[in-house]
Amino acid sequence: MDAIFKGLLILAVSLSGLLTGCAYRLGAATRSIPGGYRQISVPVFKNKTQETGIEVAFTNALIQEFQRSRIARVVDNSLSEVAVVGQIDTIQYLPSSPRKEGELYLPKGTVIASEYRILLTVTVKVVRQADGTELWSGSFSGERTYVAPQVTLAGVNSVNPLYNLSARRQNIDVMANDIMTEAHDRITENF
Length: 191
What we know:
Elements: H1 2-20, E1 39-41, E2 46-47, H2 54-69, E3 73-74, E4 82-100, E5 111-128, E6 134-147, H3 161-188
Parallel strand pairs: 1-3, 1-4, 2-4
Antiparallel strand pairs: 4-5, 5-6
């Protein structure tokens, strides 16, 4: 009987805390574009790097985030109230974990990277179309590692440049999704 009474008392205290409200709200807070605008455009990102075509992945990832969240409607640039303008500033490929001569199966004088790190920085701005006022801006960076083509006994000359390019692009696409999710959340968080 005592256990039932204690359980009911804990439940009543918990419910009263929820009903009276406290400093913290349950569930997702209301999100919006700075200024409360509902119609946005997302022009193709500018690409200041030497890696061609990656701007499409970033632009599409940001459009998909806004379409998924339905916080604002993505429309043509001429119909939008604000534009979300992005720019890919830098990209770096850094070899890491170099394998050096003396390791198994490597000829003398050989240095091979066993993985690559991709470092990316992106800038995103929200600009009001009517007067060009910048309402919000943020800088984002990302890092990802992928395994380099490996030289093995089975295929001594198996270092495949197509694999390397494909792995690099796949990782950049993943980074685009991750970074644009963060950009979307920071643009709409209303702080």
